[in-house]
Amino acid sequence: MPTTVQPSITAHVHPLVLLSATDHYNRVAKDTKKRVVGVLLGQNKGKTVNISNSFAVPFEEDEKDPS
């Protein structure tokens, strides 16, 4: 039986993306159980994903729906 190898995918995350995500978390949800939501932007070139920017999305949990 032939084995199949899944091609590996490489993700390059720019430092500003990590800084923005960390800043958003620290401003909104530090020391709480709140979730934070955001968007990652970049390019997909074959087996390489280049994540170059991100932005926060204002989000409030619905207390009636705990999922």
Biggest sheet strand order reads: 1-3-2
The helix/strand class is alpha+beta
Spatial separation of the terminal alpha carbons: 42 Å
- How many structural domains are formed by the residues? 1
Number of strands: 3
The global form is extended
| C-alpha Rg (nearest Å) | 17 Å
Helix proportion: 10-25%
The sequence of SSEs as H and E is EHEE
> Major β-sheet, in short?
3 strands, mixed
Strand content: 25-35%
List the total number of helices.
1
Describe the 3D structure.
This is Proteasome regulatory particle subunit. One of its GO terms (cellular component) is proteasome complex. Pfam families: JAB. GO terms for molecular function: metallopeptidase activity. Keywords: Proteasome. It is a single chain. The protein is α+β, with helices and mostly antiparallel strands and 67 residues long. The protein has one domain (10-57). 21% of the residues lie in helices and 34% in strands. The chain contains 1 helix and 3 strands; from the N terminus they run βαββ. The chain has one helix spanning 15-28; strands at 10-13, 37-45, 48-57. Strands 1-3-2 form a 3-stranded mixed sheet. A hairpin with a 2-residue loop joins strand 2 (37-45) and strand 3 (48-57). The longest helix has 14 residues, at 15-28. It is extended, with a radius of gyration of 17 Å. The chain starts with 9 loop residues before the first strand and ends in a 10-residue tail after the last strand.
